[in-house]
Design a protein that fits this description.
Strand order of the largest sheet of chain B: 3-2-1-28
Shape of chain B: globular
CATH architecture of chain B: 7 Propeller
Number of domains of chain A: 1
Largest sheet of chain A: none
Strand content of chain A: under 5%
Order of helices and strands of chain B: HEEEEEEEEEEEEEEEEEEEEEEEEEEEEH
Bound molecules: zinc ion
Distance between the termini of chain B: 31 Å
CATH class of chain B: Mainly Beta
Helix content of chain A: 55-70%
Mean pLDDT of chain B: 86
Number of domains of chain B: 1
Radius of gyration of chain B: 19 Å
Strand content of chain B: over 45%
Largest sheet of chain B: 4 strands, antiparallel
CATH topology of chain B: Methylamine Dehydrogenase, Chain H
Oligomer: heterodimer
Number of strands of chain A: 0
Low-confidence stretches of chain B: 1-26, 318-325
Low-confidence stretches of chain A: 315-323
Number of helices of chain B: 2
Distance between the termini of chain A: 59 Å
Helix content of chain B: under 10%
Structural class of chain B: mainly beta
Number of helices of chain A: 14
Order of helices and strands of chain A: HHHHHHHHHHHHHH
Shape of chain A: globular
Mean pLDDT of chain A: 85
Chain lengths: ~325, ~325
């Protein structure tokens, strides 16, 4: 593991020493140096994620595309979403917030005579078994993500935000991170609650996180790819997640909510292992949600949510198709 | 809090792995706290190689040796526990739940253990013998490093985010004063009846009157002064400058600069070896630098991510290992 993570740490350390520290010092913000280093690590791994994903997914999309578009201008905004969420400000906020809240809350729990929960405390044999420990964390977190995602389709106000993710008709490996900021925020609070409950460490498994995020990106890729009968049931494939994004499945009753593991869909009977590569998009979303700029999409998401909440009861048929 | 610690968890798993004697350890061991990856590196002082990595829960930063020298306590901040290790073998003896233990230290008279809760904005004073909480001082914000007066009358704690130094009177168990000392104070050291405080967002350290907290003098060492250490012979004051990337040797009486050494990677803590060399953790380089002050030569040793605290025990020989087992 050490030699694998070494180049990343070296790059983050270099960034810290030659760019971040001098800047913090000049700005009188040296008390943020620890947090800044955490961000540097996130950003280095995030940038690597983007590069690796690009290097693997682009040839795949060229090789066997599901769809060909006359121009792919709608993809550009997804690239922006990706960079923002993997390299930019979002990881910084995640790190600062999560770290501070975790230290404060678990410390408070300890102060009150309780041992804060961590999987390794419950199962001490896991200490020193980082890969196994991580696997358990992944299963728990993926389970919780399944339910967050499923609920975001179930509640109409929530889906108004999540529809931004579904509105993309030119779905590519860049589309994984296209989410409404509010939806992302809810997702973050959700993740944080679960992570605190099981005591997940923030920066111990960067390479494995990289792998998981790759699976999620790949599952959005515009490629005819599936993993075989067994593989489909082990890891979410591009075909499996495409069914979730299908035109017919958009909205309150979709299928295949799983992020990395299809197990929860199988368990809760929402899995669709059909063999079609369906076109994607959300017909109920206004056009700007699909092709607008970042700001326009964010604004449209809020508009749609306000309309949904305000329109409740008054015009029950407002959201359904005029048959 | 320690009342509840009668349920101290003995982790046979951990201790069994860490304690096996080996002839390669014959010339002493160094323990490095890898704060960025939840582990401790054990380095052979002779071969300069990492011989073992001990997994911990979350984030080990600093250490303190009990007054009798028999227990080495390592604070795991985000893991909320103290690891009680055998200082001769680094075998884990027990794990003690303590909230957010950042820097910690026993008073010179051996009566108290002070634990800074960096993320909890509190300073906890424990009875050293029983490890019972004597008093908690809410001290916002971010209590960072600490030093005692040699007569154990007071402990001084830097408050990083509010640019202050706090003095806690251990006889009355009350805060004596809290004073502004300069931008982002970190390392604290008692020297010549004065308290020295390194300033991370400034170019050196300040000399503070322990009675009043008044800043008497400023000493230039370099940008981002982080930690202060007195050499074992008490003649040299060493200061690590995080931003300048230097370790500076000063005359401990006059504070005149003797020599400056280039140490990259964010120099943090120092341990002194009997051969006169300095073992310096390089926070952002995943290495420990071994500096020979005489020649200026530097050798680096690969350890884990974000090495912070460092404990060196030249007495950890093969004989001690077998004796303690
Ligand atoms: Zn969805
Ligand atoms: Zn999706």
């Amino acid at each position: 593991m050490d030699s694998l993570t070494y180049p990343f740490d070296l790059a983050a350390g270099w960034l810290q020493e030659h760019a971040i520290l001098p800047a913090l010092y000049a700005l009188g913000l040296m008390n943020w140096e620890e947090v800044a280093y955490g961000w540097a690590l996130f950003a280095v791994y995030g940038a690597t994620q983007v590069v690796v994903t690009y290097a693997i997914c682009l040839p795949l999309e060229r090789w066997r595309p599901v769809e060909r578009w006359p121009d792919s201008r709608a993809v550009t905004v997804d690239i922006f979403y990706t960079l923002l969420s993997r390299v930019g400000l979002l990881p910084l906020m995640t790190f600062v917030l999560f770290y501070r809240v975790q230290v404060f809350l678990t410390g408070w729990v300890t102060d009150n005579g309780w041992v804060p929960p961590t999987i390794e405390r419950v199962f001490p044999f896991l200490l020193g078994q980082p890969v196994l420990t991580f696997a358990i964390y992944v299963v728990i977190l993926d389970f919780s993500e399944y339910w967050r995602h499923r609920l975001s389709h179930l509640f109409d106000w929530w889906y108004s935000l999540h529809s931004l993710h579904h509105a993309q008709r030119q779905m590519t490996f860049w589309s994984d991170d296209r989410n409404h900021l509010l939806d992302d925020t809810i997702g973050f609070v959700w993740f944080m609650a679960v992570a605190l409950l099981i005591g997940i460490p923030p920066m111990q498994f960067p390479l494995l996180v990289l792998l998981l995020r790759f699976v999620e990106s790949l599952s959005h890729a515009n490629v005819r790819l599936w993993f075989g009968w067994l593989g489909e049931r082990l890891v979410v494939s591009p075909r499996f997640h495409r069914a979730h994004h299908g035109l017919m499945a958009a909205g309150l009753a979709s299928v295949n909510y799983g992020g990395v593991l299809p197990w929860w869909d199988m368990l809760f009977r929402t899995a669709d292992f059909g063999h079609d590569y369906v076109p994607t998009g959300d017909p109920s979303a206004e056009e700007v949600l699909a092709t607008g700029s970042y700001a326009a999409q964010q604004a449209a998401g809020v508009r749609r949510m306000v309309r949904t909440v305000a329109g409740r009861g008054a015009e029950p048929a407002a959201q359904s198709d005029p048959v | 809090m320690f009342r509840r610690l009668s349920i101290v968890v003995l982790l046979a798993m951990l201790s069994s792995g860490a304690g096996a004697p080996s002839p390669a350890w014959a010339h002493g061991l160094v323990l490095v706290m890898n704060s960025g990856e939840a582990s401790l590196s054990v380095v052979d002082m002779d071969t300069h190689r990492e011989v073992r990595r001990i997994p911990v829960l979350r984030e080990p930063h600093h250490w303190a040796l009990t007054p009798d020298g028999r227990d080495l306590l390592v604070g795991d901040t985000a893991g909320n526990e103290l690891l009680d290790l055998d200082p001769a073998t680094f075998a884990l003896r027990r794990r003690v739940p303590v909230a957010d233990p950042y820097q910690l230290g026993f008073s010179p008279d051996g009566k108290f253990l002070t634990v800074n809760g960096n993320g909890r904005n509190q300073v906890d004073i424990y009875d050293a013998a029983t490890l019972k909480l004597a008093k908690r001082f809410p001290l916002p914000r971010t209590p960072s490093h600490l030093a005692y007066a040699p007569d154990s009358s007071r402990v001084f704690v830097s408050l990083q985010d509010t640019d202050e130094l706090a003095a806690i009177d251990l006889r009355t168990m009350a805060v004596a004063w809290v004073q502004k000392v300069g931008r982002v104070p970190a390392g604290v050291l008692w020297l010549n009846n004065r308290v020295l405080v390194a300033l991370m967002n400034d170019e050196g350290f300040v000399v503070v009157d322990p009675a009043t907290g008044r800043v008497e003098r400023r000493v230039h060492t370099g940008a981002g002064a982080h930690q202060l250490f007195l050499s074992p012979d008490k003649k040299v004051l060493w200061v690590n400058n995080r931003v300048a990337g230097t370790t500076v040797a000063l005359d401990s009486e006059t504070f005149a600069e003797i020599r400056s050494y280039r140490i990259t990677g964010g120099p943090d803590d120092i341990a002194f070896a009997p051969d006169g060399k300095l073992w310096i953790t390089q926070r952002f380089a995943r290495t420990v630098a071994v500096l020979d002050p005489a020649s200026g030569g530097i050798e680096t040793i690969a350890v884990g991510r974000q090495p912070h605290g460092i404990f060196l025990n030249p007495a950890a020989t093969a004989a001690t290992l077998s004796a303690s087992n």
